[in-house]
Amino acid sequence: MPYYQVVGEVPRKRHVQFRRPDGGLYAEELMGEEGFSSDSSLLYHRHLPTAIVKAEAVTSPPGTRLEPNLPLAPRHFRTQELSTVGDLVTGRMLLAGNGDVRLSYATSDQPSELYRNSMGDECVYVQRGSVRLESTYGVIEAGAGDYVVVPTGTIHRWVPDGQVNVLAIEASGHIRPPKRYLSQYGQFLEHAPYCERDLRSPAEPLLVEGEEVPVLVRTRGGLTRLVYRNHPFDVVGWDGCLYPFAFNIEDFEPIVKKTHAPPPVHQTFEGPGFVVCSFCPRPLDFHPESIPIPYNHHNVDSDEFMFYVGGDYSARKGSGIDVGSISLHPAGFTHGPQPGAVEAVIDAVSRGITTTSEMAVMVDTFRPLDLGQGALSCEDPGYAWTWAR
Prior knowledge:
With about 400 residues, the protein is mainly beta. The protein folds into two domains: about 50-65 and about 80-235, Jelly Rolls; about 250-389, Jelly Rolls, CATH 2.60.120. The chain is built from two helices and 26 strands. It has helices at about 340-350, 375; strands at about 5-10, 25-30, 40-45, 50-60, 65, 75-80, 95, 100-110, 115, 120-135, 140, 145-150, 155-170, 200, 210-220, 220-230, 235-240, 245-250, 265-270, 275-280, 280-285, 305-310, 325-330, 355, 360-365, 370. Strands 5, 7, 8, 10, 11, 12, 13, 14, 18 and 26 form a ten-stranded antiparallel sheet that branches. A hairpin with a 2-residue loop joins strand 15 (about 210-220) and strand 16. The protein starts with a strand and ends in a 13-residue tail after the last helix. The mean pLDDT is about 90. One of its GO terms (biological process) is L-phenylalanine catabolic process. It holds the Pfam family HgmA_C.
Protein backbone atom coordinates (compact mmCIF):
# COMPACT_ATOMS: atom_id res chain seq x y z
CA MET A 1 0.00 0.00 0.00
CA PRO A 2 1.16 3.54 -0.64
CA TYR A 3 1.24 4.79 2.94
CA TYR A 4 2.71 3.84 6.29
CA GLN A 5 0.68 2.33 9.14
CA VAL A 6 1.47 1.40 12.75
CA VAL A 7 -0.75 -1.02 14.71
CA GLY A 8 -0.17 -2.23 18.27
CA GLU A 9 3.20 -2.17 20.01
CA VAL A 10 6.45 -1.70 18.10
CA PRO A 11 9.92 -0.59 19.28
CA ARG A 12 11.19 2.88 18.38
CA LYS A 13 13.92 1.46 16.08
CA ARG A 14 13.68 -1.41 13.60
CA HIS A 15 15.61 -4.62 14.19
CA VAL A 16 16.53 -3.86 17.81
CA GLN A 17 15.73 -5.89 20.93
CA PHE A 18 12.01 -5.80 21.71
CA ARG A 19 11.23 -7.72 24.86
CA ARG A 20 8.10 -9.37 26.20
CA PRO A 21 6.93 -8.63 29.75
CA ASP A 22 8.68 -11.83 30.89
CA GLY A 23 11.99 -10.57 29.51
CA GLY A 24 12.10 -12.78 26.41
CA LEU A 25 12.37 -11.38 22.91
CA TYR A 26 9.49 -10.92 20.52
CA ALA A 27 10.22 -12.59 17.17
CA GLU A 28 10.42 -10.32 14.12
CA GLU A 29 8.90 -11.30 10.78
CA LEU A 30 9.63 -9.09 7.77
CA MET A 31 6.97 -9.46 5.07
CA GLY A 32 8.48 -7.98 1.91
CA GLU A 33 7.63 -7.92 -1.79
CA GLU A 34 9.88 -8.20 -4.84
CA GLY A 35 12.98 -9.40 -3.04
CA PHE A 36 12.59 -6.72 -0.33
CA SER A 37 12.96 -3.97 -2.95
CA SER A 38 9.28 -2.96 -2.72
CA ASP A 39 6.66 -2.53 0.04
CA SER A 40 7.13 -4.37 3.32
CA SER A 41 5.89 -4.59 6.89
CA LEU A 42 7.61 -5.74 10.09
CA LEU A 43 5.53 -7.91 12.44
CA TYR A 44 6.37 -8.79 16.06
CA HIS A 45 5.29 -12.28 17.19
CA ARG A 46 5.01 -13.72 20.69
CA HIS A 47 6.28 -17.03 19.29
CA LEU A 48 8.55 -18.04 16.43
CA PRO A 49 6.63 -17.71 13.12
CA THR A 50 8.94 -20.42 11.71
CA ALA A 51 8.05 -23.19 14.17
CA ILE A 52 6.11 -25.94 12.36
CA VAL A 53 5.59 -29.48 13.64
CA LYS A 54 4.03 -31.19 10.63
CA ALA A 55 3.58 -30.85 6.85
CA GLU A 56 1.33 -32.83 4.53
CA ALA A 57 0.41 -32.56 0.85
CA VAL A 58 -3.23 -31.75 0.10
CA THR A 59 -5.08 -32.91 -3.00
CA SER A 60 -6.44 -30.03 -5.04
CA PRO A 61 -10.24 -29.85 -5.00
CA PRO A 62 -12.13 -30.95 -8.12
CA GLY A 63 -13.18 -28.42 -10.74
CA THR A 64 -9.86 -26.57 -11.03
CA ARG A 65 -9.27 -27.41 -14.70
CA LEU A 66 -9.53 -24.70 -17.37
CA GLU A 67 -10.72 -25.15 -20.96
CA PRO A 68 -10.09 -22.81 -23.92
CA ASN A 69 -12.93 -20.49 -24.95
CA LEU A 70 -13.64 -22.46 -28.12
CA PRO A 71 -15.46 -21.94 -30.30
CA LEU A 72 -14.69 -18.28 -29.65
CA ALA A 73 -17.89 -16.63 -28.46
CA PRO A 74 -19.21 -14.04 -26.02
CA ARG A 75 -20.50 -15.78 -22.91
CA HIS A 76 -23.08 -15.15 -20.18
CA PHE A 77 -22.86 -16.94 -16.84
CA ARG A 78 -25.62 -16.85 -14.21
CA THR A 79 -23.96 -17.01 -10.78
CA GLN A 80 -27.45 -17.08 -9.25
CA GLU A 81 -27.59 -20.73 -10.34
CA LEU A 82 -24.35 -21.73 -8.58
CA SER A 83 -24.57 -23.50 -5.24
CA THR A 84 -21.21 -24.10 -3.63
CA VAL A 85 -20.22 -26.41 -0.83
CA GLY A 86 -17.48 -25.38 1.57
CA ASP A 87 -16.04 -22.11 2.79
CA LEU A 88 -14.82 -18.98 1.01
CA VAL A 89 -11.48 -20.64 0.23
CA THR A 90 -12.13 -24.32 -0.48
CA GLY A 91 -15.65 -23.65 -1.79
CA ARG A 92 -14.58 -21.42 -4.66
CA MET A 93 -16.00 -22.39 -8.05
CA LEU A 94 -13.57 -21.54 -10.82
CA LEU A 95 -15.15 -19.38 -13.53
CA ALA A 96 -12.23 -18.32 -15.71
CA GLY A 97 -8.50 -17.85 -15.60
CA ASN A 98 -5.10 -17.77 -17.28
CA GLY A 99 -1.47 -17.62 -16.17
CA ASP A 100 -2.00 -14.18 -14.61
CA VAL A 101 -5.29 -14.41 -12.74
CA ARG A 102 -7.99 -16.87 -11.64
CA LEU A 103 -11.60 -15.73 -11.12
CA SER A 104 -13.90 -17.73 -8.83
CA TYR A 105 -17.31 -17.41 -7.21
CA ALA A 106 -18.20 -18.67 -3.75
CA THR A 107 -21.21 -18.73 -1.45
CA SER A 108 -20.74 -19.79 2.16
CA ASP A 109 -22.00 -19.41 5.71
CA GLN A 110 -19.12 -21.21 7.45
CA PRO A 111 -15.63 -20.07 8.54
CA SER A 112 -12.67 -21.07 6.44
CA GLU A 113 -9.60 -22.71 7.87
CA LEU A 114 -6.45 -20.64 8.18
CA TYR A 115 -5.06 -20.02 4.70
CA ARG A 116 -1.96 -18.57 3.07
CA ASN A 117 -1.80 -17.89 -0.67
CA SER A 118 1.90 -17.78 -1.52
CA MET A 119 1.30 -17.44 -5.27
CA GLY A 120 -0.01 -13.87 -5.31
CA ASP A 121 -2.36 -11.27 -3.86
CA GLU A 122 -6.09 -11.86 -3.64
CA CYS A 123 -8.86 -9.32 -4.15
CA VAL A 124 -12.18 -10.61 -2.81
CA TYR A 125 -15.29 -8.62 -3.80
CA VAL A 126 -18.23 -9.07 -1.42
CA GLN A 127 -21.38 -9.16 -3.52
CA ARG A 128 -23.80 -9.88 -0.69
CA GLY A 129 -23.64 -10.41 3.07
CA SER A 130 -21.07 -9.60 5.77
CA VAL A 131 -17.76 -11.26 6.53
CA ARG A 132 -14.87 -10.82 8.93
CA LEU A 133 -11.31 -11.14 7.66
CA GLU A 134 -9.00 -12.31 10.45
CA SER A 135 -5.26 -12.23 9.79
CA THR A 136 -1.86 -11.86 11.38
CA TYR A 137 -2.33 -8.10 10.86
CA GLY A 138 -5.67 -7.93 12.71
CA VAL A 139 -9.33 -7.79 11.68
CA ILE A 140 -11.26 -6.15 8.84
CA GLU A 141 -15.07 -6.18 8.89
CA ALA A 142 -16.39 -6.24 5.32
CA GLY A 143 -19.82 -6.06 3.75
CA ALA A 144 -21.61 -5.74 0.44
CA GLY A 145 -19.62 -3.70 -2.08
CA ASP A 146 -16.26 -4.13 -0.36
CA TYR A 147 -13.12 -5.11 -2.17
CA VAL A 148 -10.79 -6.80 0.33
CA VAL A 149 -7.18 -7.04 -0.84
CA VAL A 150 -5.03 -9.64 0.94
CA PRO A 151 -1.25 -9.49 0.27
CA THR A 152 0.69 -12.57 -0.80
CA GLY A 153 1.73 -14.78 2.10
CA THR A 154 -0.71 -13.38 4.66
CA ILE A 155 -2.12 -16.05 6.99
CA HIS A 156 -5.84 -15.36 7.26
CA ARG A 157 -9.33 -16.80 7.44
CA TRP A 158 -12.83 -15.69 6.44
CA VAL A 159 -15.65 -15.75 9.02
CA PRO A 160 -19.09 -15.02 7.47
CA ASP A 161 -21.96 -13.51 9.43
CA GLY A 162 -24.69 -15.59 7.81
CA GLN A 163 -24.52 -16.32 4.09
CA VAL A 164 -22.05 -14.34 2.00
CA ASN A 165 -21.42 -14.30 -1.77
CA VAL A 166 -18.05 -13.26 -3.17
CA LEU A 167 -16.04 -12.97 -6.37
CA ALA A 168 -12.44 -13.99 -5.71
CA ILE A 169 -9.70 -12.53 -7.91
CA GLU A 170 -6.46 -14.48 -7.39
CA ALA A 171 -3.41 -12.84 -8.96
CA SER A 172 -0.08 -14.36 -9.91
CA GLY A 173 1.60 -11.27 -8.40
CA HIS A 174 0.60 -8.07 -6.65
CA ILE A 175 -2.63 -6.02 -6.83
CA ARG A 176 -2.16 -2.28 -6.39
CA PRO A 177 -3.75 1.10 -7.17
CA PRO A 178 -2.94 2.25 -10.72
CA LYS A 179 0.37 4.09 -10.90
CA ARG A 180 -1.24 7.09 -12.62
CA TYR A 181 -3.25 7.76 -9.43
CA LEU A 182 -0.10 8.05 -7.28
CA SER A 183 2.72 10.53 -6.85
CA GLN A 184 6.29 9.33 -7.27
CA TYR A 185 6.31 8.89 -3.48
CA GLY A 186 3.10 6.86 -3.31
CA GLN A 187 0.48 9.44 -2.24
CA PHE A 188 -2.87 9.44 -4.02
CA LEU A 189 -3.09 12.45 -6.37
CA GLU A 190 -6.02 14.87 -6.52
CA HIS A 191 -7.34 13.46 -9.80
CA ALA A 192 -7.58 9.91 -8.39
CA PRO A 193 -11.13 8.53 -7.99
CA TYR A 194 -10.39 7.46 -4.40
CA CYS A 195 -7.80 8.21 -1.73
CA GLU A 196 -6.23 6.99 1.52
CA ARG A 197 -9.25 8.04 3.60
CA ASP A 198 -11.39 5.56 1.68
CA LEU A 199 -9.22 2.57 2.64
CA ARG A 200 -9.79 0.53 5.79
CA SER A 201 -7.02 -1.55 7.35
CA PRO A 202 -6.75 -3.49 10.65
CA ALA A 203 -6.83 -1.09 13.61
CA GLU A 204 -5.53 -3.32 16.41
CA PRO A 205 -3.77 -6.66 16.85
CA LEU A 206 -5.66 -9.96 16.92
CA LEU A 207 -4.24 -12.30 19.56
CA VAL A 208 -5.38 -15.93 19.64
CA GLU A 209 -3.98 -18.71 21.82
CA GLY A 210 -3.51 -22.20 20.42
CA GLU A 211 -1.09 -25.01 19.72
CA GLU A 212 -0.58 -27.29 16.71
CA VAL A 213 -2.64 -25.06 14.42
CA PRO A 214 -3.07 -26.14 10.77
CA VAL A 215 -2.68 -23.64 7.92
CA LEU A 216 -3.54 -24.44 4.29
CA VAL A 217 -0.79 -23.06 2.03
CA ARG A 218 -1.07 -22.61 -1.74
CA THR A 219 2.14 -22.48 -3.76
CA ARG A 220 3.00 -22.95 -7.42
CA GLY A 221 3.69 -26.58 -6.58
CA GLY A 222 0.20 -27.22 -5.19
CA LEU A 223 -1.44 -27.32 -1.76
CA THR A 224 0.24 -28.14 1.55
CA ARG A 225 -1.13 -28.11 5.08
CA LEU A 226 1.47 -26.89 7.59
CA VAL A 227 0.87 -27.37 11.31
CA TYR A 228 2.32 -24.52 13.39
CA ARG A 229 3.49 -25.13 16.94
CA ASN A 230 1.68 -21.97 18.08
CA HIS A 231 -1.25 -20.05 16.68
CA PRO A 232 0.03 -17.59 14.02
CA PHE A 233 -2.34 -14.89 15.30
CA ASP A 234 0.15 -13.84 17.98
CA VAL A 235 1.35 -10.50 16.54
CA VAL A 236 1.47 -7.76 19.20
CA GLY A 237 2.27 -5.02 16.69
CA TRP A 238 3.40 -4.25 13.18
CA ASP A 239 4.34 -1.31 10.99
CA GLY A 240 4.97 -0.70 7.31
CA CYS A 241 3.27 -0.24 3.95
CA LEU A 242 2.14 -3.82 3.28
CA TYR A 243 -1.12 -5.04 4.83
CA PRO A 244 -4.68 -6.14 3.99
CA PHE A 245 -7.17 -3.39 3.27
CA ALA A 246 -10.79 -2.90 2.23
CA PHE A 247 -12.27 -0.39 -0.18
CA ASN A 248 -15.99 -0.03 -0.86
CA ILE A 249 -17.21 0.41 -4.42
CA GLU A 250 -19.60 3.15 -3.22
CA ASP A 251 -16.54 5.29 -2.40
CA PHE A 252 -15.29 5.19 -5.98
CA GLU A 253 -15.80 8.66 -7.54
CA PRO A 254 -16.63 8.27 -11.24
CA ILE A 255 -14.78 10.36 -13.81
CA VAL A 256 -17.18 11.74 -16.42
CA LYS A 257 -16.94 13.50 -19.79
CA LYS A 258 -19.39 15.33 -22.05
CA THR A 259 -19.45 12.21 -24.23
CA HIS A 260 -19.05 8.56 -23.30
CA ALA A 261 -15.74 7.75 -21.57
CA PRO A 262 -13.94 4.43 -22.12
CA PRO A 263 -13.35 1.83 -19.37
CA PRO A 264 -9.93 3.10 -18.16
CA VAL A 265 -11.74 5.91 -16.31
CA HIS A 266 -13.28 3.19 -14.11
CA GLN A 267 -9.98 1.50 -13.24
CA THR A 268 -9.64 0.72 -9.53
CA PHE A 269 -6.66 -1.68 -9.26
CA GLU A 270 -3.99 -3.17 -11.48
CA GLY A 271 -2.36 -6.58 -11.32
CA PRO A 272 0.10 -8.52 -13.46
CA GLY A 273 -1.61 -8.88 -16.83
CA PHE A 274 -5.00 -7.50 -15.77
CA VAL A 275 -6.91 -4.51 -14.39
CA VAL A 276 -9.96 -4.25 -12.10
CA CYS A 277 -12.58 -1.57 -12.84
CA SER A 278 -15.62 -0.30 -10.89
CA PHE A 279 -18.70 0.85 -12.80
CA CYS A 280 -20.71 3.03 -10.42
CA PRO A 281 -23.76 5.33 -10.54
CA ARG A 282 -22.79 8.57 -12.24
CA PRO A 283 -24.19 11.49 -14.28
CA LEU A 284 -24.98 10.61 -17.87
CA ASP A 285 -22.92 12.23 -20.60
CA PHE A 286 -24.03 15.83 -20.96
CA HIS A 287 -23.06 16.98 -24.45
CA PRO A 288 -26.38 18.08 -26.06
CA GLU A 289 -25.94 15.52 -28.85
CA SER A 290 -24.19 12.79 -26.85
CA ILE A 291 -25.08 9.12 -27.04
CA PRO A 292 -25.00 8.34 -23.30
CA ILE A 293 -24.35 4.65 -23.67
CA PRO A 294 -21.27 2.61 -24.65
CA TYR A 295 -20.43 2.56 -28.34
CA ASN A 296 -19.68 -0.72 -30.08
CA HIS A 297 -16.12 -1.50 -29.15
CA HIS A 298 -13.41 -4.07 -29.72
CA ASN A 299 -10.68 -4.06 -27.10
CA VAL A 300 -8.24 -5.92 -29.32
CA ASP A 301 -5.73 -6.78 -26.57
CA SER A 302 -8.11 -7.82 -23.79
CA ASP A 303 -10.76 -10.23 -22.67
CA GLU A 304 -13.51 -8.41 -20.72
CA PHE A 305 -15.02 -10.19 -17.70
CA MET A 306 -17.95 -8.15 -16.28
CA PHE A 307 -19.76 -8.99 -13.04
CA TYR A 308 -23.10 -7.12 -12.77
CA VAL A 309 -23.64 -6.36 -9.07
CA GLY A 310 -26.42 -3.77 -8.95
CA GLY A 311 -28.58 -1.18 -10.67
CA ASP A 312 -30.04 -1.21 -14.16
CA TYR A 313 -27.91 -1.94 -17.22
CA SER A 314 -30.08 -0.28 -19.88
CA ALA A 315 -27.46 -0.93 -22.57
CA ARG A 316 -27.92 -4.68 -22.12
CA LYS A 317 -31.72 -4.77 -21.88
CA GLY A 318 -33.05 -7.79 -23.75
CA SER A 319 -29.81 -9.80 -23.49
CA GLY A 320 -30.77 -11.72 -20.34
CA ILE A 321 -28.13 -9.87 -18.28
CA ASP A 322 -29.30 -9.16 -14.72
CA VAL A 323 -27.81 -8.60 -11.27
CA GLY A 324 -25.58 -11.60 -10.55
CA SER A 325 -24.76 -12.14 -14.23
CA ILE A 326 -21.24 -12.32 -15.59
CA SER A 327 -20.47 -11.58 -19.23
CA LEU A 328 -17.25 -12.56 -20.95
CA HIS A 329 -16.46 -10.66 -24.15
CA PRO A 330 -13.22 -12.03 -25.59
CA ALA A 331 -10.70 -10.34 -27.82
CA GLY A 332 -11.69 -11.22 -31.37
CA PHE A 333 -15.31 -10.16 -30.82
CA THR A 334 -16.84 -6.68 -31.14
CA HIS A 335 -19.50 -5.99 -28.51
CA GLY A 336 -21.74 -3.13 -27.49
CA PRO A 337 -25.32 -2.14 -26.68
CA GLN A 338 -28.22 -4.43 -27.46
CA PRO A 339 -30.29 -3.51 -30.53
CA GLY A 340 -32.61 -0.60 -29.74
CA ALA A 341 -30.74 0.38 -26.54
CA VAL A 342 -29.21 3.56 -28.01
CA GLU A 343 -32.59 4.93 -29.09
CA ALA A 344 -34.18 3.98 -25.76
CA VAL A 345 -31.55 5.82 -23.71
CA ILE A 346 -31.67 8.93 -25.92
CA ASP A 347 -35.44 8.95 -25.39
CA ALA A 348 -34.99 8.57 -21.62
CA VAL A 349 -32.60 11.54 -21.55
CA SER A 350 -35.13 13.63 -23.48
CA ARG A 351 -37.59 12.83 -20.68
CA GLY A 352 -35.24 14.15 -18.00
CA ILE A 353 -33.21 11.09 -16.96
CA THR A 354 -29.75 12.44 -16.01
CA THR A 355 -28.03 9.62 -14.12
CA THR A 356 -27.25 5.94 -14.48
CA SER A 357 -27.64 3.42 -11.64
CA GLU A 358 -25.43 0.66 -13.03
CA MET A 359 -22.90 -1.08 -10.80
CA ALA A 360 -20.42 -3.69 -11.99
CA VAL A 361 -16.97 -5.09 -11.31
CA MET A 362 -14.91 -5.65 -14.45
CA VAL A 363 -11.65 -7.55 -14.90
CA ASP A 364 -9.86 -6.94 -18.20
CA THR A 365 -7.06 -9.40 -18.92
CA PHE A 366 -4.27 -9.04 -21.46
CA ARG A 367 -4.08 -12.76 -22.15
CA PRO A 368 -7.08 -14.89 -23.17
CA LEU A 369 -9.28 -16.24 -20.40
CA ASP A 370 -9.93 -19.95 -20.35
CA LEU A 371 -13.18 -21.27 -18.87
CA GLY A 372 -13.69 -23.10 -15.58
CA GLN A 373 -16.27 -25.72 -14.67
CA GLY A 374 -18.14 -23.24 -12.49
CA ALA A 375 -18.83 -20.97 -15.47
CA LEU A 376 -19.69 -23.78 -17.86
CA SER A 377 -22.23 -25.18 -15.40
CA CYS A 378 -24.27 -21.94 -15.34
CA GLU A 379 -23.89 -20.67 -18.92
CA ASP A 380 -26.73 -19.11 -20.89
CA PRO A 381 -26.30 -20.92 -24.24
CA GLY A 382 -28.24 -18.34 -26.28
CA TYR A 383 -26.36 -15.21 -25.22
CA ALA A 384 -23.96 -15.01 -28.17
CA TRP A 385 -26.81 -14.52 -30.63
CA THR A 386 -28.72 -11.77 -28.78
CA TRP A 387 -27.25 -8.96 -30.93
CA ALA A 388 -28.73 -10.63 -34.03
CA ARG A 389 -32.31 -10.84 -32.77
